[in-house]
């Protein structure tokens, strides 16, 4: 994972340092996504939630905070809206939309619930960021 200098400065606080990584692997397993790549590496290093000066979205922690976690939001939106396995919901709802990570491509999408989810699933929605690295560097930049 390649973090920009700005992202590293933002994440330097001890408050963001994850000390126990077994929970990350367990959550990824429960969510049925691979435990390798930029997103798993990020969450092995850092614990959220996170705020950004560049967007109103709060980037959730992977599994802590219960329903207000990537795991909790993903499960809720899988049940409520049919978000398929392989996609993780990274944020809570903001203005009727969420940020979603595609585990197969690594891209991050801004998805609304007024046609955006259907477009994502049909392959018609362009990614907002081509990779999780690009998203993180924007988010903390």
Brief sketch in words of this structure:
The chain is of the alpha+beta class and 141 residues long. It contains 6 helices and 3 strands; from the N terminus they run H-H-H-H-E-E-E-H-H. Strand 2 and strand 3 (108-112) form a beta hairpin.
List the helices and strands and how they pair.
Blueprint: H1 5-10, H2 22-31, H3 38-45, H4 70-81, E1 87-89, E2 97-102, E3 108-112, H5 116-121, H6 132-140
Antiparallel strand pairs: 1-2, 2-3
How would you describe this protein?
- The chain has 6 helices and 3 strands, in the order ααααβββαα.
- With 141 residues, the chain is of the alpha+beta class.
- The mean pLDDT is 93.
- A 3-stranded antiparallel sheet has the order 1-2-3.
- 36% of the residues lie in helices and 10% in strands.
- The radius of gyration is 14 Å and the shape is globular.
- It starts with a helix and ends with a helix.
- The chain has helices spanning 5-10, 22-31, 38-45, 70-81, 116-121, 132-140, and strands at residues 87-89, 97-102, 108-112.
């Amino acid at each position: 994972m390649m973090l920009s200098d700005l992202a590293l400065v933002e994440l330097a606080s001890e408050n963001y340092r994850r000390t126990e990584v077994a929970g990350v692997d367990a959550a990824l397993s429960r969510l049925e996504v691979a435990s390798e790549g930029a997103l798993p590496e990020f969450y092995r290093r850092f614990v959220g939630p996170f705020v950004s000066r560049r967007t109103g979205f709060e980037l959730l922690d992977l599994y802590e905070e219960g329903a207000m976690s990537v795991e909790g939001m993903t499960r809720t939106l899988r049940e409520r809206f049919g978000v398929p396995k392989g996609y993780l919901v990274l944020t809570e709802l903001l203005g009727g939309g969420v940020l979603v990570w595609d585990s197969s491509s690594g891209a991050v999408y801004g998805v609304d619930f007024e046609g955006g989810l259907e477009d994502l699933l049909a392959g018609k929605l362009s990614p907002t960021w081509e990779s999780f690295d690009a998203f993180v560097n924007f988010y903390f930049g």
